[in-house]
Amino acid sequence: MNDTLERIVDGLAEQGYAVIDNFLEPEEVKAIVGLDAFHEAAASFKKAGIGKNQDLQINEAIRGDYIQWVDRNTAPAPVKVYLDKLQALIQAVNRGLFLSLKDYEVHMTVYPPGSFYKRHLDQFKKDDHRKLSVICYLNEDWREEHGGQLRMYLSDQTVDFLPLAGRLVCFRSDQIEHEVIAATRERRSLTGWMLDQVAELRHL
Q1: Among positive and negative, which fits the CA dihedral 189, 195, 200, 202?
Q2: What is the pLDDT of residues 88-142, one digit of tens each?
Q3: Which of 57, 72, 89, 101 to pair with 199, CA 20 to 30 A apart?
Q4: Where are the beta strands (DSSP E) in the chain?
Q5: Cα(52)–Cα(187) distance, rounded to whole angstroms?
Q6: Is the pTM of this model over 0.85?
Q7: What's the rounded Cα separation, in Å, for the pair 17 and 10?
Q8: How far is it, in rounded angstroms, from Cα 123 to Cα 191?
């Protein structure tokens, strides 16, 4: 695990992003995907919006995913495995990059077939506490023809990454614009942000 964390820190330092396969092992992915929450996503997840608090808007022309926020105190055991790894990553990033990260927030995410999220930046205009975006994909047997790539817009090029099961993508929330390409099958992930603020303070 330490080697994996160092590779993420090195990638962030050198290029502003890192992509690591098998951050979650296949059996760990299977345990999360098998949770009732994902099987009942259509009924229990909420339509994701754009903006925050009173500025929040639902606009399916921009994003079409459904989300359910994770409460670390009540998270099922398979999700806690992932949250523990995120906590270790925060400590590694703080040691290597001095970002003064204090916490994280995570939601379970489902994109129905054909849905997408247009090009955007993860940091809000009135809230700059999201420092790193962290996405772990949960899509077993994903193939190129399924689509669903995460597309990053870098200064000199665009790069695409397939949402392969267990793959972690981590990047600077304030620097890298990105979009989610439509897929032909349901696309699942744990999507989150590392913060320079305690998460509970964000909703007071």
Answers
A1: negative
A2: 999 999 999 988 999 999 999 999 999 999 998 877 656 678 899 999 999 999 9
A3: 57
A4: 17-20, 46-47, 66-69, 103-111, 117-120, 130-137, 150-153, 158-161, 168-172, 177-180, 187-195
A5: 24
A6: yes
A7: 9
A8: 14
